[in-house]
Each structure stands twice: as C-alpha cells, then as structure tokens.
Amino acid sequence: MSHRVQHAAALGWFALVAACVFWRIVFAQQVLYWGDIMLYFLPMTTFAARWLTQGILPLWNPHTLFGQPFVGNPQEWLFYPSTLFLTLWHPAGYLSWNAVLHLWLGGVGMWLFLRSLGVPFRSALLGSTAWMLCGAFVPRAQFPGMFQTIAWMGWLMWSVERLRQANSAVNVAILAVTVALLLLAGHAQVTYMALLLAAAWAGWRMIRDGWRLLPSVLLGVTGGLLLSAAHWLPMLQLLRETPRMNLSVWGADRFPLRPEQIPLLLVPELYGTPWQGNWLGRGNYWEVACTVGILPLMVAFAAWKARAEARFWLVVAGLSLWLAIGTSAGLYIVAYYLLPGLKAFHDPARWLIVTDFALCVAAALGWEHLHSSRKWLLLPLALIILASLWAWQ
Predict the structure, then answer these.
(1) CA distances (Å), 94 to each of 9, 19, 102, 148, in order?
(2) Which of 342, 355, 336 has its CA nearest to residue 289?
(3) Is 362 among the domain residues?
(4) 62-90 pLDDT, tens per residue?
(5) Is residue 158 part of a domain?
(6) How many CB atoms lie within 10 A of CB 247?
(7) Looking at residue 360, what is its pLDDT?
(8) Which of 130, 170, 137 is nearest to 153 (CA)?
(9) Residue 357 lies in a domain
(10) The model scores a pTM over 0.85
C-alpha cells in the first residue's frame, strides 16, 4: 500500500474503534452521564453555552459558592477549538460526541508518532489501537478536560520527533500549535506530565544527536505558551489566591496506585467495575484504571533488545508506574521535592497515563521486532499456556 492509502486506512480504522467503544453515543443517540461529567462538567458546560450563544464570554461564575472566575478555571476549556461546537449542540450531546472525537484524535496522534519512528504499518496500527483501548484513556471520558489533554500526547511526541528529523520553521510552528492545544484542552496536570515526557524524549534524543535541536524546541514551546496565554494567564492569577499550589506531600498522595492493584495492568475487572456495581478496590476506579492487556505487555517487554527507543520507553513505563504508587514506594517523595511544579497536583495514580502511553509505544516497537524475526509465532503458544494456567487456577 502507498503511504496515502495506509494513512487513510488507519484514519478509518481509528474512527471504527472510537465508534465501537462509544457505540451507545454513535448508534443509540445516548449520552455520557456517570461521575464528574454529570456532577460538574455538564452544569459548567451548560452555563458556558448559555452565554456563548449570546455572544458573551462568561468571565465570572456566580453559581458556585459566592462566585468564582470562569475564565481561569483550570478545568474549563473556553478557548479550546471544540468549544465552537458548543454553540450548535446541546451540552450533553456536545460532551459525548467530543469524547468520540478525542478518542479518534488520540489514536491518530499515536499513529503519527509511531510512523515517525519508522514503525511499519501493522505494528503502528496495533500500538495505536492499544493506546485507544487502554485503561488510562477510555475510563477518563467522564473527565472531559483530562480526556482531551490525553488525546494530544501522541501529537506532542510526534511534533517533537518531526522537528528532530527536519529542523524547519514549519515544524516549529506545528510544535507551537500542539503545545497550545495541549494547554487549552483543560487539564493542567496531564499537560504537566505530557510536557515532562516530551522534554525527556527530546533530551534523550539530543544527548544522542547533539543539542542543535534545543533552540527550536524552546521556540516552539514559547510559541505554544503565547498562543494559549488567554487560558493560562488568568489561571495563574487565580491560583495565586489558593493554597492548591503548595500541597503537602501527604496531601498530594490522595489517590495512589496500591501495590495490590498493579495486576490491573493485565486484568481490568480484577476488583470489579462501577458499571456492574461491584467495584471493591480502594479509591476511584478510573483513577487506577491502567489495563494494557496481556498481549501488548508481553510484546512490549520483548522489545527491550530490539531498539534503543524501546528501552527508553520501558524505562519511562517503569519510572511512571513507580511514581503512581505514591509515597509508599519512595520515588514520589523524591520527585515531590525535586520536580518543579509537582507540589501543585495530587493523585499520583495519574502517572499511569504515562505508563500506558509508554507501554503502547514499546508494544508497537516490540511487535515490529517480533514480526521481522518471525518470533511472533511464539505468541499464540504463550497465550495458550497463560490461558491454561488461568483456567487451572
């Protein structure tokens, strides 16, 4: 297949995956309602729609406590492009179809990144699909700002890698737009983690290739900050008036991943699920959701000897999983004091977003290695053995 046909096939496949995941929205005309989306985001989106349809930018929200700024609220996305659809749609329908769109965007971004690494068509398709279906992505659809921001992680990594491969003004502009969209999407913590991940990737690449890329990366990030200033400048002004910017290390450790929950990487319903009414795990289900699946995880670890890039992503997966466990594992305490900005965020389990992203990249690289060496023929045998052990237990 030509590159154009491959891209078109991938885009169509990701649309099909998104439609299957959210089939109740696409085919049954139902809407998302469970959790924060009903308790917080639907009322806030309805408030925004009421004023935006009148051509008025709602600067102030008088309905929460004694009132609070609406522009500058870290969990709103008034200046994000998809807000344009809010004036044309009922807020509940907007939030639901917005989730479908961003799941598709997440798959496309991962696809572009993997292809920029030279990953073949099938392997890139598998890695991107694993990312779209992983536990760190889909369950967070009930938190729209977080979901939107997660969708841009692959795009951010692609824009950095594209700039590394061709240091041009066009690619600097692409990085700037991607950073701006990431910031505007409405979740500061995921933006923080994504930018740290991109910085680590760019730094690792520059250590190997030289530092000529650094000025262009800084220029692109600066451009993104300028493009999104209408969102983050009022937010910084608001945060100066709150104690949130300096949480204690124990206050930040609100929702960690418990060591006994690590098997959730393999088994999504190990402790039940909220929609079946039998969730027995500690904390919120979606905070610790991280399932990648047995096959992607096996393939990811098979990539260790294949490429240096795979080793980078497996190390990232290990470190972020360690951080997700929180203060009980020690690394989070060290990071709390050493990483600027980490004190502003709680819930260490959200580092599982980085874990799953890294594992999906490593899985794509591992599948490429196994397929080229024909060792993929061992995978069915390994799966049969695992299934037999599971059934025997």
Answers:
(1) 27, 15, 12, 13
(2) 355
(3) yes
(4) 998 889 999 999 999 999 999 999 988 89
(5) no
(6) 17
(7) 97
(8) 137
(9) yes
(10) yes
* Rounded distance between C-alpha atoms, residue 95 and residue 102, angstroms: 11
What is the distance between the alpha carbons of residues 350 and 289, in angstroms, rounded to a whole number?
A: 9
Neighbours of 295 (CB within 10 A): 16
Q: How far apart are CA 119 and CA 379, in angstroms?
A: 20
Distance in Å from the first CA to the final CA of the chain: 45
* Average pLDDT over the chain, rounded to an integer: 91
pLDDT of residue 11: 96
Block residue for tokens 């406590």: 65
* Per-residue three-class SS string for the chain: CCHHHHHHHHHHHHHHHHHHHCHHHHCCCCCCCCCHHHHHHHHHHHHHHHHHCCCCCCCEECCCCCCEECCCCCCCCCCCHHHHHHHCCCHHHHHHHHHHHHHHHHHHHHHHHHHHCCCCHHHHHHHHHHHHHCCCCHHHHHCHHHHHHHHCHHHHHHHHHHHHHCCCHHHHHHHHHHHHHHHHCCCHHHHHHHHHHHHHHHHHHHHHHCHHHHHHHHHHHHHHHHHCHHHHHHHHHHHCCCHHHHCCHHHHCCCCCCHHHHHHHCCCCCCCCHHHCCCCCCCCHHHHCCCCCHHHHHHHHHCCCCCHHHHHHHHHHHHHHHHHCHHHHCHHHHHHHHCCCHHHCCCHHHHHHHHHHHHHHHHHHHHHHHHHHCHHHHHHHHHHHHHHHHHHC
pLDDT interval class at 187 (50, 70, 90): very high
Token readout for 165 is 């491969």
The amino acid that residue 127 corresponds to is G
pLDDT of residue 375: 54
Confidence of residue 389 (pLDDT cuts 50, 70, 90): very low
pLDDT digits (tens, 9 = 90+) for 352-384: 999 999 999 999 999 877 766 555 445 554 544
Domain count, the chain: 1
Q: Tell whether the model's pLDDT for residue 290 goes beyond 90.
A: yes
In the predicted structure, residue 261 carries a pLDDT above the cut 90: yes
| Full domain range(s) for residue 270 | 255-393
Q: Is residue 101 part of a domain?
A: no
pLDDT for position 135: 95
Closest CA to 283 of 274, 291, 275: 274
At residue 362, what is the residue type? A
User: How far is it, in rounded angstroms, from Cα 228 to Cα 369?
Assistant: 40
